[in-house]
């Protein structure tokens, strides 16, 4: 088997769906539906984990042969969600322990909104929090991934909006246990994203695939993969060129998919990914 075939096989083994895509389903419905379609991974949403229970989750995922590509999310260290700094850090440390028990590929971090802080203060607050949390993450063997969020739909979630800012924070914290999530919905419509990928890949823990018919504005609104403006094929080809072999996790939420059943969304997603994989392979 040649090197590309090995890489492609690894990638196929880590195709995942985020539970945010099937938010109204139970945990068991998620696991059964994903596994029955040939997905091998699941992006876990913490409220669903809390409702279902950690021990039951571990047992269910073993039965379904699903690996955990991500646990989502921790953060809000700037106080933008009403919690204090210490409370948000303690919550993140608890999530690190859950991620370790789940053998999750990464624990996703959202910085929090700027929350009337000057930007430099918000950045220092985030870096201070990450330095505390990576100490625990190292102890438990967990990787943290900072996710840049498009300012058009996520100012209250994160003041970190682009790849350069994300890489700068990773460099400041200086831990191999901190990397990033690249969500194509949030950064994929930036014409510079492909140029940034060679710098991003060494720090990249997870790629989340999302598409949209226009740049994010207001509520998050993703469309079915391949029906929007995000150059998914180009991004995947570039990631392959620079040897990204990590998980591909799909997240689909918003008005453009609300009229579709979850079964329709999952079926379309699997077909799209299978076709896209073939095209990338033939390039």
Automatic annotation (TrEMBL):
The keyword Ribosomal protein does not apply. It comes from the Bacteria. Keywords: Isomerase. Transmembrane segments: none annotated. SUPFAM superfamilies: Xylose isomerase-like. Its EC number is 5.3.99.-. Residues 34-256 form the Xylose isomerase-like TIM barrel domain. InterPro entries: IolE/XylAMocC-like, Xyl_isomerase-like_sf, Xyl_isomerase-like_TIM-brl. GO terms for molecular function: isomerase activity. PANTHER family: HYDROXYPYRUVATE ISOMERASE, XYLOSE ISOMERASE. This is Inosose isomerase. It comes from Novipirellula herctigrandis. The lineage of its organism: Bacteria, Pseudomonadati, Planctomycetota, Planctomycetia, Pirellulales. The gene is iolI_3.
């Amino acid at each position: 088997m040649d090197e590309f075939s090995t890489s492609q096989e690894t990638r196929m083994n880590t195709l995942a769906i985020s539970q945010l895509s099937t938010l109204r389903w139970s945990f068991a419905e998620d696991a059964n539906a994903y596994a029955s379609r040939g997905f091998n991974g699941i992006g876990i949403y913490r409220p669903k984990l809390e409702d279902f229970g950690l021990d039951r989750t571990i047992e269910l995922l073993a039965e379904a042969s699903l690996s955990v590509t991500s646990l989502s999310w921790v953060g809000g260290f700037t106080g933008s969600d009403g919690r204090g700094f210490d409370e948000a850090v303690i919550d993140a440390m608890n999530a690190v322990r859950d991620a370790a028990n789940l053998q999750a590929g990464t624990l996703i971090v959202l910085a929090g909104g700027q929350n009337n802080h000057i930007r430099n203060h918000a950045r220092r607050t985030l870096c201070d929090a990450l330095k505390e949390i990576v100490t625990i993450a190292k102890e438990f063997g967990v990787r943290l991934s900072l996710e840049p969020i498009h300012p058009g739909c996520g100012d209250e979630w994160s003041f970190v909006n682009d790849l350069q800012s994300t890489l700068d924070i990773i460099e400041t914290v200086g831990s191999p246990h901190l990397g990033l999530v690249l969500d194509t919905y949030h950064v994929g419509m930036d014409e510079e994203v492909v140029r940034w990928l060679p710098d991003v890949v060494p720090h990249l823990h997870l790629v989340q695939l999302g598409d949209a018919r226009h740049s994010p504005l207001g509520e998050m609104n993703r469309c079915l993969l391949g029906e929007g403006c995000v150059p998914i094929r180009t991004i995947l080809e570039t990631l392959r060129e620079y040897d990204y072999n990590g998980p591909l996790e799909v997240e689909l939420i918003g008005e453009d998919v609300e009229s579709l059943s979850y079964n329709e969304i999952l079926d379309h997603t699997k077909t799209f990914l299978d076709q896209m994989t073939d095209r990338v392979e033939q390039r």
